[in-house]
Amino acid sequence: MRLTLDTNVLVSAFIARHGHSANLLELALTVESIELILSEKILRELEDVLTRDEVRERFSYTHQDVRKRVNALRKSTIIVPVRSRFKVVKEDPKDDIVLNTAYDGRAHYIVSGDKHLLKVRRFKGIRVVNPKQMMDIISKGFSDLVLRS
User: Fold this and answer.
1) Pairwise CA distance, residues 102 & 54, whole Å
2) Mean pLDDT taken over the chain
3) What are the beta bridge partners of residue 128?
4) How far apart (Å, rounded) are the C-alpha atoms in residues 84 and 81?
5) Which residues pair with 127 in a beta bridge?
6) Under DSSP, is residue 89 helix (H, G, I), strand (E, B) or coil?
7) DSSP state of 52
8) Tell me, what's the pLDDT at 146?
9) Residue 66 φ/ψ, nearest 5 degrees
10) Can you tell me the distance from the alpha carbon of 23 to that of 56, in angstroms, rounded to the nearest whole number?
11) Quick one: which of 27, 59, 96, 103 has the fewest CB in 10 Å?
């Protein structure tokens, strides 16, 4: 299973460290059958958001802490070059990078909390779901595997 996580899911995972986004990131980084597909552009946006003063001060991160975490994520994921230029999200064109990353990385799912992306629902065969929905899909998949063995 190949997943692309939107920046808002990654930010939630880093900041909250619990909940659906954090659990999802943990699974994506530790379960062999789940591959996390990202792009440099998504990682740069993640670093940008996490180094904003209001975020860093609220959660006591230093720029160095953020850089270390993003670099660790970079080493643990599949980073794809984004060549596609689909323009789908008219309300917020910056969201198109997530769709293009998922498409170029042959992801099965895009996981986002962004209302504009969630409205897309399906893009070129890739399902767009929120973190809770993805956790439910993964849970069902693992229970199916247990039932078959």
Assistant:
1) 29
2) 90
3) 110
4) 9
5) 109, 122
6) coil
7) S
8) 38
9) -65, -45
10) 22
11) 59
Tokens of 69: 């975490």
Structure tokens at 72: 């660790």
Compute the distance between CA of residue 43 and CA of residue 38 in angstroms, rounded to an integer.
7
Question: Are 47 and 12 within 8 A, CB to CB?
Answer: no
| C-alpha span between 126 and 103 (Å, rounded) | 8
As beta bridge partners, residue 109 has 3, 127
The predicted pLDDT at position 12 comes to 93
Q: Is the pLDDT assigned to residue 144 strictly greater than 50?
A: no
Q: Give the Cα separation of 50 and 15 in Å (integer).
A: 9
The C-alpha angle 36, 21, 89, rounded to 5 degrees, equals 70
Per-residue pLDDT at 149: 33
Contacts of 48 (CB under 8 A, 6+ apart): none
How far is the C-alpha of 47 from the C-alpha of 5, rounded, in Å? 14
Residue 125 backbone class (left: φ over 0; alpha: ψ -120 to 50; beta: rest): left
pLDDT tens-digit series, residues 67-123: 999 999 999 999 999 999 989 888 877 899 999 999 999 999 999 999 999 999 999
Q: Which alpha helices (DSSP H) does 31-104 contain, by range?
A: 40-50, 53-59, 63-75, 96-104
